[in-house]
Amino acid sequence: MSSPARIELEIKRLALRHTWTTTMSSSDFRDTVRLRYIRDGVTGYGEGAPISRYGESAASALQALEALTPWLATADPWRFDPLLARARILLGPHQNAALAAVDLALFDWLGKQLNLPLHRYFGLNPATAPLTSFSLGIDTLECTRQKTLEADLYPILKIKVGLDSDEETITTVRSLTAKPIRVDANEGWTDPEEAIRKIHWLEALGVELIEQPMPAHMLAETRYVRSRVHLPIFADEACTRAASLPQLRESYDGINVKLDKSGGVLEAYRWIALARSLELKVMLGCMVSSSCSTTAAAHLAPLVDFCDLDGHLLIANDPFRGVQVEQGHLILPPGPGLGIQPSEHAIEPSLFKKP
Ligand code: MG
Predict the structure, then answer these.
(1) Which of 162, 170, 163 is closest to 141 using CA atoms?
(2) For residue 123, how far is its CA from the centre of ligand 1 (angstroms)?
(3) For a surface tag, which of 37, 78, 98, 231 has the fewest beta carbons within 10 Å of its beta carbon?
């Protein structure tokens, strides 16, 4: 057996191009936790974006990963299935983003060792991936107008709503473009009749689908809404573990899978397979994150119906170069593993760094 891995951890502050506002929060930056898995002269890169909605923070993810490090350094990476199952238990609850950082770094390392891009490991054809949407956060009407024009290169838009300005926002975007629009309410509507009225209105404007219109716990109310509208309804905040998928199928038409919710690539693959067996549609989404996370997700994109892998397009200091987005097409980098390379922003000082 080779010598133990060296594990490097840090919190990276990603600067947002525009202040990012949803029903949950408003911020100019996002802190993600990054992990480098270095063994036998090969480095695997991983990243997780902890989200307060799920009881996570970058500080707590870093702490959990530090505690995991002595065990992870000596665990056998070639037996990644039991390794990741054990890591999930050792990290404890509310650490799916931390687990994603471990999973991504391992798959990047393994792919490099095997000289195999991640999509080839899963037997997928990247040319069959759906186009990705580009997201617009909640903003003033003037900024929404500006951002819609700036998003000219992206053929599908995903618009965040859920505050009082919903209808003005969508009307503004629709007045500027005829391209497909998806809408994400981030649990913003609590009255079923209001949700039905708004969804009918969105449908009339040619909106393609609506994501998480009501709070995650309002399953029965969402089921009622679904029975009265035609637009497909997708679960995001309501979909946080594989075991919850069977009970979502009455209330939702599909689920939004994110590596930071599932705990990485391996579990995301299982979520997608389970969703398929339950005849749920699948969207592959992401948090605000670097190209590390969105590139890893892009390798799985041929498995899904809808893509929303724009996290790295929303930031100004991406520490990696990876998947490129050209007219909505996801263009994977050619290398093995995730295929990502550190960018000029990789060497910026971290908020916290430990060897
Ligand atoms: Mg969402």
Answers:
(1) 170
(2) 28
(3) 78
Separation of CA 257 and ligand 1 centre (Å): 10
Chain length of the chain? 355
User: What dihedral angle (degrees, nearest 10) is formed by the CA atoms of 78, 68, 13, 129?
Assistant: 30
Q: Three-state SS string across 5-47, please?
A: CEEEEEEEEEEEEEEEECCCCEEEEEEEEEEEEEECCEEEEEE
Nearest-angstrom CA–CA distance, 194 and 187: 13
Distance 47 CA to ligand 1 centre (A): 19
**CA of 354 relative to ligand 1 center, distance in Å:** 32
Beta bridge partners of 207: 181
Compute, in degrees rounded to 10, the torsion defined by CA atoms 239, 244, 249, 251.
Answer: -60
Q: What is the mean pLDDT of residues 272-278?
A: 98
Mean pLDDT of 252-274: 98
Look up residue 138 and give its two tokens.
């909640």
8 A C-beta contact, residue 2 and residue 50: no
- The closest alpha carbon to 265, from 41, 44, 65, belongs to 44
What separation in Å is there between the alpha carbon of 125 and the centre of ligand 1? 26
Joined together, the tokens standing for residue 240 give: 């946080």
- 162 confidence band (pLDDT: 50, 70, 90): confident
**Cα–Cα nearest to 140, from 177, 168, 182:** 168
CA of 114 to the centre of ligand 1 (A): 34
Q: Which residues contact 178 (CB under 8 A, 6 or more apart)?
A: 206
Instruction: Please give the distance, rounded to the nearest whole angstrom, from the Cα atom of residue 1 to the centre of ligand 1.
Output: 43
Span from the CA of 82 to the centroid of ligand 1 (angstroms)? 30
C-alpha span between 233 and 226 (Å, rounded)? 7
3-class secondary structure, 345: helix
Cα(59) to ligand 1 centroid in Å equals: 23
- Please give the structure tokens belonging to residue 122: 């899963």
Express each pLDDT in 139-148 by its tens digit: 888 989 999 9
Task: Tell me the per-residue pLDDT of 241-252, one tens digit each, with 9 for 90 and over.
Answer: 999 999 999 999
Helix, strand, coil: what percent of the chain each, to 5? Answer: 40, 25, 35
What pTM was computed for the model? 0.95
